[in-house]
Every structure is written in C-alpha cells, then in structure tokens.
Write a structure and sequence with these properties.
This protein is α/β, with parallel strands linked by helices and 242 residues long. It has a single domain (4-240), classed as TIM Barrel (Alpha-Beta Barrel), CATH 3.20.20. It has helices at residues 4-7, 19-25, 33-36, 41-50, 63-66, 72-76, 96-112, 129-140, 159-169, 204-214, 228-240, and strands at residues 8-13, 28-31, 56-60, 116-120, 148-152, 172-173, 188-192, 219-223. An 8-stranded parallel beta sheet has the order 6-5-4-3-2-1-8-7. Helix 4 runs parallel beside helix 7 (96-112) and helix 10 (204-214) packs across helix 11 (228-240).
C-alpha cells in the first residue's frame, strides 16, 4: 500500500532557502522564474542535475501566455512591450507571440524533466465568449504535450464553465483549497497563497483540515505564503505521522 506521504507531494512555490537545504527536505518544487522570464535551458539542465533522484519539478507557464502587458508582473520582470504590440500578449490569444511563449515554456519544462505546468491567470481574465474561445483553441493545440496541465482561474467564472472546460480540455482545476474546492481533474493541484499579502501562517487545525480534504487522493500541495517553508514542513510531518 502506498502511504499518504507518498501520494501527497508537498513543496513550495520557489526556493525559500538554498537549493541544497531545500533538496534535503522536500521532493517537489514549483519553479517561479519561468512565469517572469524563461531562463536559459542550461539552467534547467543544471537544476535537474543538482536535484536528488526522485525529486520532482513543476513550473508556471510564461506570463506572456496568461497576463496582459499592463500587469505589474511585466514591470517586475522588466519586460518592456511597445504599446502598439500589447494586443498580441496574454489571455491565451491565438497570436505568434503567445505560441512562442508556450514553445519556450515547453522546452524549459522538458529540459527540467518537469511533470506539471501551471497556468495562473489574473483576476482580470474573466468569463467572456472571447476568453472561452481562446482557452479552447490554446489547450486543444497542446493536449499531447505529455504534461499535467493545471489551470488556476482567479477571475469571475461560473463553476459550471470551469468544470466543463477542464473536462473538455483535459485540465486540472488548480485552486487554493482554503478558498475554494477543485471542480475537476486528478491528481489534485493545490497552491496555498496565504491570503492578503501572503502573510497567513497555517495552523495545525487548518493543515489537519487540508489533510482530510485530500483524503485518499493523490495531490500536489505547494505553499506560496511568506511562511511557506515552515508550513510545508509542518504538513509533511503531519502526513508522515499517518
């Protein structure tokens, strides 16, 4: 029988400590750099080599796929897009710019030997006929990528639409389980953001509730709060105790 600590993979969104210290304690990380700018492939190969056997990477897809150039994350990444080109970026638009961003994301994921790619959308990406059409066209073209594809919608979407699109397009509905429940897909893919300004520290009772929510299902659990390292360790200890 597979233990719960094996079925549920726990880690952080990014490396909150040195890689060596992190690799000693976890067997999963979600790479964040790929969202802002895709690093060189040599970086992926080096990380893969440095990681211990059995260590698993997931990563965030390029923001060029999901976010508009007005997003502050473009400024953080020092991406300067000429205003007359803004219409080609983000929201899964069927443009060459978005297709190239996916190609670069895919190449990095393959070099890293990642298992899952997360598409985190901004709150401004809400349910409209254009958004639905863009999602359908984008994901229909990449269903044979070989990766678990997780979609994290944060805008105004009907649950029935989310569930239907995930089922149709083979997506896992990625959520913060402290805020909402997943509507489709396996394994589960949870990202715990820590509430406003990422400051929440999760209590033992909250982690026990999360454990009960997952039950016997397989899951990725990634902490993205300021206290991510300690909270992830606490959940690992809870799972190991079972």
């Amino acid at each position: 029988m597979v233990s719960k600590s094996q079925r549920i993979k726990v880690g952080c969104c990014g490396f909150p400590v040195s890689m060596r210290k992190y690799f000693d304690r976890f067997r999963l990380v979600e790479v964040q750099q790929t969202f802002y700018r895709i690093p060189k492939l040599e970086t992926a190969l080096r990380w893969r080599q440095q990681a211990p056997p059995g260590f698993e990477f997931t990563l965030k897809a390029s923001q060029i796929i999901t976010h508009l150039p007005v997003s502050p994350t473009y400024r953080k990444a020092r991406l300067r897009i000429p205003p007359d080109e803004w219409g080609d970026y983000g929201f899964f638009k069927p443009t060459e710019v978005v297709r190239q961003a996916w190609a670069e994301t895919l190449d990095f994921a393959r070099a890293l030997e990642a298992k899952a790619i997360v598409f985190q959308c901004p709150p401004s990406f809400s349910e409209t006929p254009e958004s639905v059409a863009n999602l359908r066209q984008f994901f229909a073209a990449i269903t044979d990528s070989g990766f678990l594809l997780a979609w994290e919608p944060r805008g105004d979407w009907q649950e029935s639409t989310i569930a239907g699109l995930c089922a149709e397009l083979g997506l896992v509905h990625c959520v913060d389980p402290m805020e909402r429940q997943p509507l489709h897909g396996a394994p589960l893919y949870f990202r715990l953001h820590g509430g406003p300004r990422y400051r929440r520290r999760y209590t033992e009772d909250e982690l026990k509730g999360l454990n009960e929510t997952m039950g016997d299902r397989e899951a990725y659990v990634l902490f993205n709060n300021i206290n991510m390292f300690e909270d992830a360790l606490a959940l690992q200890r809870l799972l190991a105790s079972e």
